[in-house]
Here is the input.
Amino acid sequence: MGEIVGAALVSHHPGLMQDDDFRVHMGAGADSDLIAGYARLRAKIDALKPDVLVIFDTHWFTTGYHLVDGGAHYEGSYISDEMPWYLHGQRYAYDGAPDLAQLCQVVADERGALVKTIDEPTLPRHYATINVVNRLKATERIMTVGNCQTAKTRHFLEMGEVVGEAIRRSGRRAVLLASGALSHKFNDLDWEQSNPRIYHPDNVSDPANVRSDREAIALFEQGRHDLILDRFPEYRAIPWEGLGGHYLQMVGALGGPACKARGEQLSDYENARGTGNVHMWFEVQR
Here is the structure.
């Protein structure tokens, strides 16, 4: 019998992959606390000894189906087509979890969910997976789940249920990683920083988004996922990154509105080009 042993909302923004001196320079003499937050998050994972990390990738946009990465191994060098001057030369190598991916397909077929498991070595990688892998992976296998842009909130929750049931049947110990930001409205091309420390929340694109993000963080800490889901039309309209599909699939796997997992903030709440970023750990009751 497999189990979900932990879960987290994790930032993946490209600035976190720059060299230390550059990050400190951009932080007006101090590094992003999301970097130290990765170490705090890794300590949580180490304590649980999972054998697979399931990454809900907000950059793997899909259409028509939820997609699950069923490949056995991936390695190469990544360059972002979004910002090739900034995010390039990212070497990666990791093993997939094809057994778990195929179980996702079995469960989806039983339930009539629109899911396809894809085993194709040339399937492109996305930095919402690669950055998290390169910052967090130890020996675990990796299974990535896409973000279907035609999905509504209920579809994301249903897909999370599929992943959760597949994990239970698999015999694996899994940590779920929802890879993405909260509010995800970028600053304009010619924006000027409000605060010299680029990571400061004053640089988030809209003060209303900061307030909303902080309210959501407080609800996470209380384990009130039911209230988060009640308010989700508001979060989707802001919008949260990837329509919030990363969070919704994660919490769907944890029981949806019945989930009571309390969140622990493992980093400061920070800006990234106008978006609101934080690492949140969710203690899963077993």
